[in-house]
Automatic annotation (TrEMBL):
Domain of life: Bacteria
The protein's name in its UniProt record: Methylamine utilisation protein MauE domain-containing protein
Gene Ontology CC, one term: membrane
GO process annotations (BP): methylamine metabolic process
Origin species: Planotetraspora mira
Amino acid sequence: MLSTIAAAALPILIAMLLLGGVAKLATADGDAEIGGLGRLGPAVLAPQRFRKAAMIGCALGELGLIAVLLLLPDQAVARWMPVAFFSVATYVLWDLRRRRPDVGCGCFGEVSAAPIGMRSIGRAAVLAAMAVIVAIESPGYAALSSWSWMTTAWLAGGIALVLLLSTEIEETVSRLRHRAPCEQRAIPAKRALSRLQSSSAWRSHVPMLVSDEPADMWRELCWRFFVFPARDGADVVFAVYLSGRRPAVKSAIVNADGRPITPLQESMHVSA
């Protein structure tokens, strides 16, 4: 019976580690707003300048544990590493809920931004228990060869339990049903910069720029502004609309005093 439960628990652990790792990497790469990672899980415990590195390190660790579960089931020390990971995660979430009740668990990146509750802690504890069973039985790839209907039943029950404890599902459904207006949505600056650099406004001004890295950037409502240094001490200011598949891009050239040299020009976003 224990081996059947272990065989069912293995794909659940792998799926959770994979989703968590990929989501954390996406959040770390896309979070360009100052302090954004300070609202997500254990990253809040790290100094501001190390939060992105902490998020990436955690993600890579989770992806590494997948290889441990699949490739090193017979290594006594390695197979207990997932147990240690989920056990520590359970304690950290419990401690964060007590010390910083305002932050999210960050288990799946920015999707897990809701304040930590007992369901998130319970999920981590359930995964830790699954990891213990897998470590005892260490099924590895052998679990696939001994699959049965009983294993499928345990798998379905495990998935149902994990879903029941996952607040991210409710958060995602709520976001889809009640999508915030553009002015209130968190949109990474990198996405706006990518839209800018594939626009005709960018291509028409890039020869006069002295750097392709913005000297300044800020957001006003649904517009993201970028300032690039240009020749003769001037600056080129771009404004990128943050909504729509083909957003408008505006540009203007200003002198050192902030006075416009050219009037504001507008172009539609066109992919190169």
